[in-house]
Amino acid sequence: MTEMTAPMLAAQPFFRGMSAEQLAALAAAAEDVVFPAGHRIMEDGGHAGRFWLIRSGHVLLDARVPGDVPVIIDSIGIGELLGWSWMLPPYRWAFGAVCVTEVEAIQFDAAAVRAAGAADPALGYELTRRVLHVVARRLRGARTRLAARSVNTAGRY
Q1: 94 lies in a domain?
Q2: Is 66 a domain residue?
Q3: Contact status, residue 29 vs residue 112, Cβ threshold 8 Å
Q4: What is the tally of helices (H) and strands (E) in the chain?
Q5: 102-128 burial string, b = 16+ CB within 10 Å, else e?
Q6: 16 falls within a domain
Q7: What is the rounded average pLDDT of the residues 35-54?
């Protein structure tokens, strides 16, 4: 396993423009991970104790529908953030996620990142702002997919 460094994080588009000190604080809470294809990274309603930045591979976000199979909400690829429910109590995942391919990612310890954000309000603000952009984009995508699903007579896409 490679030790995560501030310059390694600076190369990721999600973190572009953050200060070296902020990146160093995030690097201290980060590690490289690899998940095999088919691995469920997170389960809808499960504890949100970490989050990921995808370095390679492809992940599908899904939501449980009572009495039905999970509904695909979005797909996540290289350079994208996976997970935002770690930011707010009760720290439970709003969606599930499964690897379509092998996935290499930077995994962050959510409690450590929240503590770093509390200790450095500028870091906390930057993370909140960046994650909110991800949430807004995902909600727009989910809305589009759900609208398409409702007009699909087969109920699947």
Answers
A1: yes
A2: yes
A3: yes
A4: 4, 8
A5: ebebbbbbbeebbebbeebeebbebbe
A6: no
A7: 97
Which domain, by its residues, includes 69? Answer: 32-148
Give the pLDDT confidence of 100-151 residue by residue, as tens digits: 999 999 999 999 999 999 999 999 999 999 999 998 887 887 677 667 767 6
CA angle 12, 114, 79 (to 5 degrees): 20
Q: State the CATH number of the domain containing residue 41.
A: 2.60.120.10
In this prediction, residue 153 carries a pLDDT of 47
* Structural domain total, the chain: 1
Determine, yes or no, domain membership for 49: yes
Residue 157's pLDDT is: 44
Q: What is the DSSP string of 88-138?
A: STT-B-SSEEEESS-EEEEEEEHHHHHHHHHH-HHHHHHHHHHHHHHHHHH
pTM here? Answer: 0.88
Q: Is the pLDDT of residue 65 over 90?
A: no
Q: Which residues contact 84 (CB under 8 A, 6 or more apart)?
A: 51, 94, 131, 134, 135
Q: Which two tokens stand for residue 40?
A: 């469920």
